[in-house]
Specification:
Layout: H1 3-6, E1 12-18, H2 20-36, H3 43-60, E2 65-74, E3 77-84, H4 105-112, E4 115-120, E5 125-132, H5 150-161, H6 175-195, H7 200-219
Antiparallel strand pairs: 1-2, 2-3, 3-5, 4-5
Helix pairs in contact: 2-3, 3-4, 5-6
Domain Histidine kinase/HSP90-like ATPase: 18-122
Keywords: Kinase, Serine/threonine-protein kinase, Transferase
GO molecular function: protein serine/threonine kinase activity
Length: 220
């Protein structure tokens, strides 16, 4: 059976604050995941949908709104969700006028996605869209918690490194803060290894080899 068809594709989500500078980072993260999932055909459209859905939160809910991007497989469809806490600001399909700088988000999503919608939950609104990947719908996407606990680790490390920052360790990490925390963790581990007589470059090489082997095994 084709390994691309039946490879594991674990649902994932990423909390962030709705600010314009996060959009490019979210697009990069999505592209990396879709490369691992071997879904290059839908990558460009998926990135466009993420940009528009997140921009909709920024423009109509507000800057720095705590938001979550969630991506999963729904049968043969790639499902993209953007969660925000405001159930009053509902996206509407209104054609933007020529020269308009806003109002195009949902129109674009409606044009490129196979289907989209809005779900109202007790504590949040979920705006979602789905893209047909062309995979057989009978394919089972097995969940494997490769990154279980990473959010907690990064948040806890940030809290220790910047103890005077209000909310550090409890507020959702932005992508930029998560990246900085990850770099701090790696640098501190390498310093510790070096202090104990280990070669930092060798450790990095072994970690990269281990990461690639795990990714290959997971994708079979």
């Amino acid at each position: 059976m084709n390994c691309i068809v039946c490879m594991s594709r674990k649902p994932w989500d990423l909390p962030f604050l709705a600010v314009p500078q996060e959009v490019a980072a979210l697009r990069r993260v999505l592209r990396l995941h879709l490369e691992v999932w071997r879904l290059p055909e839908v990558t460009d459209v998926a990135q466009l949908c993420v940009s528009e859905l997140v921009s909709n939160v920024i423009n109509h809910v507000g800057l720095e709104t705590p938001t979550t991007l969630a991506v999963s497989m729904s049968g043969s469809y790639l499902r993209i969700e953007v969660h925000d806490p405001d159930s009053r600001a509902l996206p509407t399909l209104v054609q933007a006028g020529l020269g308009s700088e806003s109002g195009r988000g949902v129109v674009l999503v409606d044009a490129v996605a196979d289907r989209w919608g809005v779900e109202l939950r007790a504590d949040r609104k979920v705006t979602w869209c789905e893209l047909d990947t062309g995979l057989p719908s009978v394919c089972v996407h097995t969940v494997r918690p490769l990154t279980t606990g990473v959010d907690e680790l990064l948040n806890g490390y940030r809290a220790k490194k910047v103890p005077n920052v209000i909310g550090a360790g409890s507020d959702p990490l932005t992508l930029a803060a998560a990246e900085e925390a990850a770099i701090d963790i790696i640098a501190d581990l390498l310093r510790w290894m070096q202090a104990h007589g280990r070669n930092a470059d060798d450790v990095l090489d072994r970690a990269q080899t281990h990461f690639e082997a795990e990714a290959e095994r997971f994708n079979r």
